[in-house]
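Structural prep section.
Before we set up the soaks we want a predicted structure of the protein with beta-D-fucopyranose in place, mainly to decide which crystallisation condition to try first. Input record follows.
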Amino acid sequence: MPTGKRADCRYDRLVSDLVFPRFPPGFAWGVATAAYQIEGAVSEDGRGLSIWDTFCRQPGAIRDGQTGDVAADHYHRWAEDVGLMADLGIGSSRFSLAWPRIQPGGSGAANKAGLDFYDRLTDALLARGISPMPTLYHWDLPQPLEDAGGWMARDTAYRFADYASLAADRLADRIPLWITLNEPFVVTAFGYALGIHAPGKALMLDALATAHHQLLGHGLATAALRAAGVSKVATANNYSPAWPASNSAADLAATAAYDVLHNRLFTDPVLLGSYPDLSAFRVRDGGLDCVQDGDLAIISAPVDALGVNYYNPARLSALPNSPLPFQLQPIPGYPVTNFGWPVIPAGLTEVLTTLKDRYVDRLPPVYITENGCSVADEPDANGLIDDQPRITYLDGHIRAVFDAIVAGVDVRGYLVWTLMDNFEWSEGYHQRFGLAHVDFGSQRRTPKASFSWYRDMIAAQRAGG
Ligand code: FCB
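Run finished without errors. Recording the tokens verbatim:
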């Protein structure tokens, strides 16, 4: 790849120089963010404590003891950030609503100041021609709900629906498409089974109850959103093609077990109204003895779209005599991101075509609700941030989406993770995923080369009709 720097556009591979696929008219280009990762202002305007505020204070939980207390200070700099989005020319902005801002204790009346913030943000986005796409739950559960059992408790699903009503009562008149949950697999696996995310529980397979309660919360919230006038509802899952490390029967079985947990557990109930076979896991009643009559009907109420988050495939081998009968193996032979994640764009095509093959006409239109990479990028002597690996990553993955469209998958949009560098959960500020660099000392935002690339790619798509 050429390396010469161009002061005018700051990237090397011009979209117009390439035979770049032309996406269907109306295809939504956007960016995605999440409240706890960017907002900061954790004790302002009546916001309550979330499980991430608590988790960040546990010694050793977050790299270098960092917290989201200030993050990218988006709570104060939102207008500048909407300006950045307008500069990109995007049509969709996915952000999350902080439950503890809207309902500080997780139940009861709404906190007006919290709703006011998202009201202002919504209007500012609309004024710039950007469609807001809120996610109700991007992992920041109000701490009082965790104290009452968190997602292990069935009641949390009902509290979630109440919160959804409060948010939609205020915003549904201006926001068409809402997302209920972000990556419930990560909440169950990292938050409750392994304890590497908030709330830091290591319940292993007992954490399966959190899968059902999140799904029930999704179903109840879907009904609440519709009752409040929301026209389109989706949920967002992360998907990874599951690849066996060998063709041995044991590795193939391990791969199938992983596929069930990662790719099916949170999708089959929504799209098919049934749980996948969990018999590979040695748990009583398939680990789902908390399922009550009627729950699956609530969970499988039709959705209008499916959010797909994609980062990389997974390669599995067997792990005998373990509650989780698989282990993740490295995938050699590919470039890796700063996080060490292999860069495999074809995995995104595989995710999308597999969803289509698996769910056929039950699969609603799909949005790529997150895709992006971490690069160790810092300004050079001239203040430029030349993040060529991110451009290569985005270029490859956007083409991979196009390949899926050609193969017959109804993909309606692509949203880059993420607008600007942020608090990357247990990695703190050590992984930079942004199109814009953030200096966390001064809070100065600087568009990277990838920002210009994405902006010009979107403009070229528009110009091409
Ligand atoms: C996803 C999360 C998002 C971000 C990216 C890198 O799993 O939804 O918040 O951390 O990973």
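Observations: The longest helix spans residues 208-227.
Flagged for discussion at group meeting.
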